[in-house]
Amino acid sequence: MTETLAITLVQCNQVVGDIAANAEAMLAARDRAAKMESDLVVFPEMNLIGYPPEDLVLRPALIERATRELEKLAAATAKSGPAMLVGSVFVRDGALHNGVALLDGGKIIATRFKYELPNYGTFDEARLFTPGDLPDPVLFRGVMLGLPICEDIWHPSVCRHLAEQGAQIFVCVNGSPYEIDKDVLRIDGVAKRRAIDTGVPMAYVNRVGGQDELAFDGASFVINGDGTLAAQLPDWEEAEVTTRWVKGRDGWSCVPGALHRLSDHPEDIYCAMVVGLRDYVDKNGFPGVVLGLSGGIDSAICAAIAADALGPDRVWCVMLPSRFTSQESLDDAAECARLIGCRLSTIPIQPAVAGFDAMLADDFADMSVDITEENLQSRIRGVTLMALSNKFGPMLVTTGNKSEMSVGYATIYGDMSGGYNPLKDAYKTTVFRASEWRNTHKPRIGLGPDGPVIPQNIIDKPPSAELRPDQKDSDSLPDYDTLDGILMGLVEHEKSVDQLVAEGFEREVVVRIERLLHVAEYKRRQAPPGVKLTTRNFGRDRRYPITHRFRSA
């Protein structure tokens, strides 16, 4: 009877739809695991086709190709080396399933399908897949393996059923995207509970990397049946570990191994933005990025994120001064580019502003100057940056934060123009915290320079769009601590005006912010994608109608 087992956990990045390349990477990992005398090598959820595949999974051609590649992977296990646990898509009796296949001895020896299909927030699996039956354990080399898939462990029924049917080790494959404090929730709130409840240890394997608006942080781990952490892989980077398992009087347990430190806050948020931007740019084939560097904190941290994601040589910053741009902003932008080590161009927009003023003079006659002229400057900047992107190829990065996007303080077809926004789900107060953190730390995954990357004056000075004389954000918005507190209540927790007033916020201010939040929905629908950080990002989590008249006041 088997008394020991070696299981290799592969925390990897993948490209959705690049099935052959994903399969090739898995075979290379199997070869490495064989050198470690591993019995089983485990990959994240749906790793063969990439996750999340969204409606690509409805394409018959993709399903056919995935089936062929899975058969090739199975055939490869005929030669010496470990078995493979591979996530993919399966069709059974006309139904589409999210599942895993256990490959060994040159064939598929077992398949299991996901039972709990998430249908909330970023997930809509119930729309795409049919749930499997409650899965039974799989006998593998004398050991009964329970194979729950991601959401299956977030509810107690699957693990309890597997334990009742004799599972001795849970091997759980996952595609669990990052959000704030998710790593703690996975371990303490879910995995430990299932292990202690059943007495069965769990190997938890999660993917890493960016996929459109999702960032996967990895942070795979092993929990023993008593709830102790036996292994912890790093977050935000690919990693592999061969875990050693022994059978004792009380059942199977994992021999304690390395426990890597996970990123604290706000390092985790910063790394999510880096990973999200890096994979969006690289997987879509852009040579680099271009962005407007205004001398303000939002564009400064976006430049730093881009440098850490891609390297400073792939970041092109452009200062687009108008007649309202202060010398302080010009100096701050130049110093920021110097600290980061990236290219900086300066293109004054006044000639274009004068041209539009002349073009519109007849129709604007007898009309006073207002926000129209302010927005025109922003739109001229957007056109200019897009021209550079079109001519030279780098993707345009937009730099508006979640606080501004919430209340519509962004110019559609202006500073909202671009391909990706690292700050889309970052409130302004988060931007300040992340900027201060980056000035004293360099993320281990970062490709940018050591030391400070944002001039302290940018962090300290009052935020301003500089679209009119002496303009400050505080002219028309409450201070950002107050604004973000209200938005956290309205957006993240769906609180009413009365609830927020009871918490100490001024009714008039809350009513106004709620109105701005709702009327800006049409802008957000046209905003570029950006990495999810919170529990309620715009677009994937929070899906409101553009046209509605509900107000909670």
From TrEMBL:
Q: Which domain of life is it from?
A: Bacteria
Q: Which family does it belong to?
A: In the C-terminal section; belongs to the NAD synthetase family. Belongs to the NAD synthetase family.
- Give the catalysed reaction(s), semicolon-separated: deamido-NAD(+) + L-glutamine + ATP + H2O = L-glutamate + AMP + diphosphate + NAD(+) + H(+)
Where are the coiled-coil regions? Answer: none
Nucleotide-binding keyword on record: yes
Residue numbers binding deamido-NAD(+): 375, 404, 523
Q: What is its EC number?
A: 6.3.5.1
Q: Name one GO cellular component term.
A: cytoplasm
Catalytic residues of the enzyme? 45 (proton acceptor), 114 (for glutaminase activity), 150 (nucleophile)
Which GO molecular function entries does the Swiss-Prot or TrEMBL record give? ATP binding; glutaminase activity; NAD+ synthase (glutamine-hydrolyzing) activity; NAD+ synthase activity
- Residues the record lists as binding ATP: 292-299, 399
This chain's function reads: Catalyzes the ATP-dependent amidation of deamido-NAD to form NAD. Uses L-glutamine as a nitrogen source.
Q: Which SUPFAM superfamilies does the entry mention?
A: Adenine nucleotide alpha hydrolases-like (SSF52402), Carbon-nitrogen hydrolase (SSF56317)
Pathway assignment: Cofactor biosynthesis; NAD(+) biosynthesis; NAD(+) from deamido-NAD(+) (L-Gln route): step 1/1
Q: Residues that bind L-glutamine, according to the entry?
A: 120, 176, 182
The record's listing under NCBIfam families reads: nadE, PRK13981.1
Q: What top-level class of enzyme does the UniProt entry assign?
A: ligase
| Lineage of the organism | Bacteria, Pseudomonadati, Pseudomonadota, Alphaproteobacteria, Sphingomonadales
Recorded hits in CDD domains, A to Z, give: GAT_Gln-NAD-synth, NAD_synthase
Query: Which InterPro entries does UniProt cross-reference here?
Result: C-N_Hydrolase (IPR003010), C-N_Hydrolase_sf (IPR036526), Gln-dep_NAD_synthase (IPR014445), NAD/GMP_synthase (IPR022310), NAD_synthase (IPR003694), Rossmann-like_a/b/a_fold (IPR014729)
Transmembrane stretches, by residue range?
none
- Which Gene Ontology BP terms does the record give? NAD+ biosynthetic process
The alphabetized UniProt keywords are: ATP-binding, Ligase, NAD, Nucleotide-binding
Protein name stated in the entry: Glutamine-dependent NAD(+) synthetase
